[in-house]
Write a structure and sequence with these properties.
Blueprint lengths: L1 H33 L3 H4 L3 E8 L1 H4 L16 E4 L7 E6 L2 E9 L9 E4 H6 L5 H4 L1 E9 L1
Length: 140
Amino acid sequence: MLVIGVLLVIASAAHTSSTAPSLAKAATHAKRAARPSAAGARRFRPAVASAYSRESSGPTNGCDGSELHDGDLSVATFQVPCGARVEICVGSTCVIAARKDSGPYVAGRSFDLNVGVVRALGFSSPYAFGVRTIRWRRVR
């Protein structure tokens, strides 16, 4: 019985030493896969967005305490921290805006775009923009 146990330990040690390099490679590969790549951080993601203006929401202050204006290139979202910049695209038109407000507070929507962003994207008003799918990514 003792001989069988010793043989199993020896066989196990021999197997472990031959597979140790491959286990190390697998662990390194798993660490790399878990890290977000630089290219992955710049990929566009789809999101549902609506538009808002002071007319629709009333006078408000942004998440940084500043007053919001309809001409601002700003968005309301919980996807990025206050002050972060995002690139918003509809079709082939893209605009860089800053998160200055919190919201939206409607289920299924991820972004509220200020009038300045809506106009920069080529729409005449928040009503013309309506609710639609956009592409977005965080930019530095």
